[in-house]
Amino acid sequence: MNTAIDTLLEILDLEKLEENLFRGRSPxxxxxxxxxxxxxxxxxxxxxxxxxxxxxxHSLHGYFLRPGDPxxxxxxxxxxxxxxxxxxxxRVVAIQHGQxxxxxxxxFQLREEGLEHQIDMPDVPKxxxxxxxxDLKEKFLSVAPENVRKYWERERPIELRPIDLxxxxxxxxxxxxxxVWVRATGELPTDERIHQxxxxxxxxxxxxxxxLFPHGTSVFSPKIQAASLxxxxxxxxxxxxxxxxxxxxxxxxxxxxxGLNRGMLFTERGELVASTAQEGLIRLRKKPEA
Length: 290
Description:
Blueprint: H1 4-12, E1 15-18, E2 21-24, H2 36-48, E3 55-64, E4 74-83, E5 87-96, E6 99-110, H3 133-140, H4 146-153, E7 158-162, H5 166-169, E8 177-184, H6 192-202, E9 224-228, E10 230-235, E11 245-255, E12 258-267, E13 272-284
Antiparallel strand pairs: 1-2, 2-4, 3-6, 3-10, 4-5, 5-6, 7-8, 8-11, 9-13, 10-13, 11-12, 12-13
Helix pairs in contact: 2-6
């Protein structure tokens, strides 16, 4: 039986249909819609396969246009916008049922030396100082709300170790900050692009929820309609997605039924390897009329 990480690697291994045209599939695990991180990761795979190996992705910017249907394949159409002296630009459109469900632009660069600085990593406990997912399940799932329990019981290709669990068990209003250690649940191939695509997949996890911390609610609440609207990511350094990375996120604002979230991914050594930003829908559901 395949593990969750085996399944993730399979769905990231897109089928080439024609030059610039690829087909991806979704895991059949009972989801009602395709996970946003899957579409980001697959779109990045499609773009990467049209770029020479010497150039690595340094940024991507995507818009979620329609919910994805897990029961049918997704077609990824790559537009080779530009191949410059140092940078390569690609545009990818993900299509289902004849309609675009996601669009993304990505830029690739030859590695160069230059000025360097970075912000310090937050001072938080290391992952080996925190309970594992197995420990969390054994200790807390029996008292967790049903939808939270179902989320944590599902086998995932990405392991999460939150610094603080208050958000999952309380309606307490919290500062709009979240710290979670993340890593793939198994060893990945040495291909750097695989690690980038797995990290792109993982980057959609926990990010949107940060904008709900100050309101004492979460994406699990039946009163909240939540969905990712867009997603941006910057890759600063080579990354190993099967080693622990601290995902430090904050939310600068919520309003207009949207929440703005930012994220930084640090190695255990404190190196900032990637950054993210996302605006998400956080609409209050209307009460049904009596």
